[in-house]
């Protein structure tokens, strides 16, 4: 799971190339992120998933990146949230907003993050 997500994060051109064997890449990414959300992040890959979330916060949006937000609730007890907090001071205003939203998600575990909740939060934050 983590290896597939890392491939997408670190080698997007190769991952998205037409000759790639993963023709349903966005659907596969979505399935994996939802599985981690529902089934929990295995202890062995928690650091890797935290890195992937931070990478998604700091890069231009890629399809299904919004699904990373739901995983934040499982990392609330790690130094990860401190690193997200540091992104709230980033030069890029979109990175700052994404980091603020992720912290909001961590503080409100009863709310399910969705594309719609992101837009609503964004409307209220700006």
How does this structure look, described?
With 126 residues, the chain is an all-alpha fold. Helices cover 60% and strands 0% of the residues. It is built from 7 helices and no strands. The chain has helices spanning 2-10, 12-16, 25-39, 46-58, 80-87, 93-107, 115-125. The protein is globular.
The coarse overall form would be globular
Number of helices: 7
| Poorly predicted ranges | none
Order of helices and strands: HHHHHHH
Largest sheet: number of strands, sense, barrel closure: none
How far the N terminus sits from the C terminus, by CA atoms, comes to 35 Å
Strand content: under 5%
Decide which structural class fits the backbone.
mainly alpha
Computed Rg: 14 Å
Mean pLDDT: 88
In which range does the helix fraction lie? Answer: 55-70%
Number of strands: 0
Outline of the structure:
The protein has 126 residues and is an all-alpha fold. The chain has helices at 2-10, 12-16, 25-39, 46-58, 80-87, 93-107, 115-125.
